[in-house]
Amino acid sequence: MSRRLVPGWLCILILVVLPACNSSGVPTEVPIENGRIVFYSGRNGNDDIFSMAADGSDLLQLTDHPAGDTCPAFSPDGSRVVFSSTRDGNEELYLMNSDGSHPIRLTDTPLDEIQAVFSPDGQWIAYSAYAPDDWTSSDIFIMTVNGDDIRKLTDAPGEDARPDFTPDGSQIFFSSTRDGNYEIYVMDADGTNEVRLTNSAIHEIFPQVSPDGKKIVYAAVQMSVSNQIHVMNLDGSGDVLLEQPGRVNEGANWSPDGKFLVYQSNRDGNYEIYIMSADGADPKRLTHESTWDGWPDWGRK
Question: Could you tell me which of 294, 249, 266 has the C-alpha nearest to residue 41?
């Protein structure tokens, strides 16, 4: 997790293409038409948002502000990006075109709003809102894409964080500490019918639903041991570890076609962005910087 991914819990987290090879020694290629990846990076001295092609080429800097710009996410059609920024004081949500133009502020509250995601129809944005100066207390909210009609969906002790919609927009998955450690929950998109999906001694965080609505990718965190990426069925069954080198592999998100995963890893020293096949095969490093690159989201072109 990065700075402000799960604040107050674990703050250690967060152009050259180095092709990985499959068992036959042939470099794994991701078609450049397979959308773009947006992420934030500290490569210029503070956190700004960048995008790149799915093969790591065509790097574009989308924000250039002395404040921190983090946690970007594409709209379903890839035309816009929602992100968090401290440019007006506390963490608020902003919306800009996918080329970085015309940023507008969406929220204006005492809360710290982060971890935003669009609904599949592009009409709503779900996000986490933390209590002022308290990174251990947050709830899930939704609002229209214009920042109107704000609705609070959860009201539980602890953190409710990193929401993600199912492809049909009917449900929202999220991670929560309401029962002790971080576990994964699902609820209807109106906040009703909350169900706990995981129940273990380790932390399960940041669920992301596959484009076909059949799988969830998430990170399983063993404090001071490892963070590893898992995939499970939508009902919490059929859990599979996608084991990767390095102590921390997390923040995974799906490609638009569901065939690949993009994620952050510290396997080579600092946090960089990688992709791999959805079954965990053929990892490929996309960024190579001496500072943080993380929180990737893979959108349509």
Answer: 294
Any idea what the CATH number is for the domain that residue 287 is in?
Answer: 2.120.10.30
Evaluate whether residue 249 is within a structural domain.
yes
Residue 163 within a domain? yes
In this predicted model, what pLDDT tens digit does every residue of 67-104 receive, in sequence order? 999 999 999 999 999 999 999 999 999 999 999 999 99
Could you give the number of structural domains in the chain?
A: 1
pTM above 0.85, yes or no: yes
Task: State the residue range of the domain holding 167.
Answer: 36-299
In this structure, is residue 242 part of a structural domain? yes
Contact 286, 252 (CB under 8 A): no
Starting from the edge strand earliest in sequence, which strands make up the sheet with 284-285, in order? 249-254, 260-265, 272-277, 284-285
Residue 1 lies in a domain: no
Asked whether the beta carbons of 49 and 38 are under 8 A apart, the reply is: yes
What values do phi and psi take at 53, rounded to 5? Answer: -65, 165
Distance from C-alpha of 141 to C-alpha of 28, rounded to nearest angstrom: 39
- Mind listing the pLDDT tens digit for each residue in 251-299? 999 999 999 999 999 998 899 999 999 999 999 999 999 999 999 999 9
